[in-house]
Amino acid sequence: MSSSFKMVAKTLLGLEDLLVKELEDIGAQKVKPMRRAISFEGDDELMYKANYQLRTAIRILKPLHEFKFTNVEDFYDKLYNFEWAKYMDLNDTFAIDKVVYSSKFDNTQFAVYKFKDAICDYFVRNYRRRPSVNTQAPNVKFNLHVSEDRCIVSLDSSLDSLHKRGYRFSEGLAPINEVLAAAMLKFAGWDGKQTLIDPMCGSGTILIEAIMLARNIPAGYYRDTYGFQSWKNFDKELWEKVKREADQRIKPIEATIIGADINREVLRAVRVNLRRSKLHMNVKTLHTSFEDFNNTFDSGLVITNPPYGERIGAGEIAEIYNMIGSKLKNDFQGFDAWIITAPKENFKHIGLRPSEKITLLNGQLEGQLQHFELYEGSKKYNQDTPKEKGKLIEEKPRKRQEVRKEEQPNKKFNVSRFLKK
């Protein structure tokens, strides 16, 4: 049995509490939330579990070397004198991932160059040869984190970001990050027992994450490669045991899951991903617009990621989001709706008052996940006038907003695919 050591699980802004719960559930010790990260302790088995099972983690780091430095030369010296041979051999290739915020370097890439030189010079001094860099498929990946005069070097046990689940064989238009999709489902309290509908499903990320969560399929079930598999102390038997025990907890699904989209090509990508992942029996896919979607259920969850302003012009945003609000109000009474968008100002066109607002990042965009409780008799409200809470808005005809040249829709993007024809 390996000894316990410190690790850091990276995540997206706003998902820290979800990741804390996941880490505690798999037995992590000394769990401490930070900004976009959680520190914790555990052994090799826990590290394997974290990579294979966590849905809201991006990568799992194992800190190796932490120090303060006074200048660039001191930075190099402290790296050069570290015992790198404990963690890699001459025949290993390596890569460096960086997060650098320091006035001591003219640019962030210079810090990476000095780190690379320190490793190579160490091996030349001790073994008369230098290892090779391979940025695409390294045997060992280091994470360099520099904050002014403080440096932390870690081994990246994940290699590729954990949002790369391994089930995406075909992509639709601007797919949502898998970690973010899983977080939306967790915020919504998805338990696999309610009806779940994504009426603008794109390439089906929310649908697949919903199935995996409901059936208790590990997040890494479809993924083959992790960084720790190339480490000198990799325990293959322990790794197989971790996967076997997690896979034994997979269960049948109870709920009805429906995904819809009006774009045939995008829907084809959904079906490819579902079939190749052998999940196609767990979800029904429909070729229809949200506006024409025929809801026959009395209750459940609507969880969706509508188009953002970066993909379409400002003039169409109001039309699409107003349609979403009207459709939810009229056809989904008894449901809870969870919608993410960026920027958050898009929500003002929905016209429904949210019961929850959660700030999240989708890529580089800061947006919001909002929760709408659609009780019978739900009415449309203006989100920008909280003092008028309870006051029904008088719907007035909107003039079509003038779209500036730089905001005009991409010619390849057809906004009509979201609206009734």
Set down the secondary structure blueprint.
Layout: E1 5-10, H1 16-25, E2 29-34, E3 37-42, H2 44-53, E4 59-68, H3 72-80, E5 93-101, H4 108-127, E6 132-133, E7 140-147, E8 150-156, H5 178-187, E9 196-198, H6 205-215, H7 236-247, E10 257-261, H8 264-276, E11 284-287, E12 300-304, H9 314-331, E13 335-341, E14 356-362, E15 365-374
Helix pairs in contact: 2-7, 3-4, 5-6
Protein name: Putative N6-adenine-specific DNA methylase
Pfam families: RlmL_1st (PF22020), THUMP (PF02926), UPF0020 (PF01170)
Biased composition (Basic and acidic residues): 378-397
Descriptive overview:
The chain is α/β, with parallel strands linked by helices. It folds into two domains: 5-156, VC0802-like; 178-219 and 251-418, Rossmann fold (3-Layer(aba) Sandwich). Helices cover 27% and strands 23% of the residues. It is built from nine helices and 15 strands. An eight-stranded mixed sheet has the order 2-3-1-4-8-7-5-6. Helix 3 (72-80) packs parallel to helix 4 (108-127). The radius of gyration is 24 Å and the shape is elongated. Residues 46-157 form the THUMP domain. Residues 378-421 are annotated as: Disordered. Pfam families: RlmL_1st, THUMP, UPF0020. Residues 378-397 have a biased composition (Basic and acidic residues). This is Putative N6-adenine-specific DNA methylase.
